[in-house]
Structure of Spo0B domain-containing protein:
Amino acid sequence: MRRSGFQWVLPFVPTIVLLVGWLVQPFGRTGTILFFLGSLLSLGFGIACAHLLRNRMESVAAAERIRRISSIKRHDWMNHIQVLMGYLMMKKEDRLKAYMQKLVERAGHERNLSESRYAPLSASLLILDDRFKDWEIEWNVPKAIRFSEVAAEKKLFQLLETLFQFLEAKGEAEKGYGKLQISLVQNDPWVHVKINWQLDELPFRIAETDEKTLKNKLQRWQAKMETLSGRNGMEVACCLSRQE
């Protein structure tokens, strides 16, 4: 932590030195002008260096996340292979076919999630398993996510991010995790998002205060939200067209 903080301060050390020198310099007006110009130049240099440092740290963090997700995916597929090999050795063809069909459906959903022309939307959905590590996520995406306007897909990304942030905060507060079912049905320019969850132990319900807060946030996109029966989920409908 200290090293990271020092990295952010280091680009601005020349500016700090020049500002201190400005206060104690004995050269009068000429010194004031020179130190002022030097401070401006060093400040610009510091900002540029800090920007490069941020980009480098973000690149490293993104690479680390990709490596972690790849490791998780590899581990998952090894588990699937072991299950399939087990069914094959036990000659349980019915279970083998059912399990393979489940994998095919999962691959189909992932393909549909990746079809968006707005890359951040596809990326955020494909790595949702990593974001919600303690949840078992089930997708229902009947067709590829693609709208007539890229702006609509960007709006969908922002809308989903609001919902996912709510789930993250609620899950941490309740300390309860289980199965998360997400259905995403599109009818350009409309999208219908249905999210419901099943917990192993603790009840996870949308309180009326949470519902009001979330609805206020969703008003930014003129989205309509309704809680499901039992208050263990939500359904959101939104028109992603610019005209509405």
Observations:
- The chain has two domains: 1-81, 92-244.
